[in-house]
Amino acid sequence: MRGCPYGSHRVIEPTGFLPQAAVRIDNSTELYDNEILVDVETLNVDSASFTQIREACRDDESRISDMIMDIVKEKGKLQNPVTGSGGMFIGRISRIGKDLLERDLKVGDRIASLVSLSLTPLRIERILKVHLEKDQVDIVGKAVLFESGIYSKLPSDIPPKMALAVLDVAGAPAQVNKLVEKGMNVAILGGGGKSGVLCCYQAMKKCRDSGKVIVVEYSEENAERIREHKLAHEVVIADATKPLEVYEKIKRLTEGNLCDVVINNVNVPGTEMGSILAVKNEGTVYFFSMATSFTRAALGAEGVGKDITMIIGNGYTKGHAKLALDILRESNEIRRLFQKLYI
Question: What is the 3-state secondary structure (H, E, C) of the chain?
């Protein structure tokens, strides 16, 4: 039996929706001819989602496990009801539907999903370990990839959990690569996290000698990480939820010119206006963070008279997985940092 390439056949309610927008989906392991079944080993939970869950559970690993189990039991997928976001997984191919046998995959291959857990049918048998500082959860479970679902075979030269951490945010540095050009002023809000570090590296690669890369960080520890690895020209400590504070510091560092491109990686709500005020008219803001309110961003830009391009943080762009993994291959410092943080 063949299902919809986009997974609508798995939607339980409301009917007519696609899986990401659905309230509940079918997470049974009975496979359609154009689906792939995966034995899941680790979930990499979206940063905004994991931060919200941690705060709600006060960093209690048992309560975090229970909350994640409850979400999946209720929805058939891991979609945070507050943030709406999910994450991704790594696992081994268990079965391949007959219509997809011609793909370059075989049973036993280890892959990372490159589509959100907010639309992926998921069953969790048990949770083995919650990694509070990694946004990762080791589980025994199964997931289904639809025909349209993208994935990446895990590379042999990069440890699986390090690859998972990088692939989860691969869209961010790939978009930086598209948006940033020589001579630009670039601000990266939340530059010290995993997506921020990769964005900083790619921005510096594009305009190291001819532009200015500015990191805005709330955490002194994260700011020091950027300084230590020389991933920006300037690092400022500021609260991204306070737009005028961000604006004044960016204005001073750019001699009033502001930035051509602003990348927002902050995993807490309320940082839209800090990003908007930091960009010049006809500049671009890329909201990678799933904590972004696009209503606040749209109406806020209108309210301050900013004629700017605002890009939703689509986690996919062509070649994004290779570009992100290649950063670890190019930079021993970044690789050592990710090894320390995610292995």
Answer: CCCCCCCHHHEEECCCCCCCCCCEECCCCCCCCCCEEEEEEEEEECHHHHHHHHHHHCCCHHHHHHHHHHHHHHHCCCCCCCCCCCEEEEEEEEEECHHHCCCCCCCCCEEEECCCCCCCCEEEEEEEEEECCCCEEEEEEEEEECCCCCEEECCCCCCHHHHHHHHHCCHHHHHHHHHCCCCCEEEEECCCCHHHHHHHHHHHHHHCCCCEEEEEECCHHHHHHHHHCCCCCEEEECCCCCHHHHHHHHHHHCCCCCEEEEEECCCCCCCHHHHHHHEEEEEEEEECCCCCCHHHHHHHHHHCCCCCEEEECCCCCCCHHHHHHHHHHHCHHHHHHHHHHHC
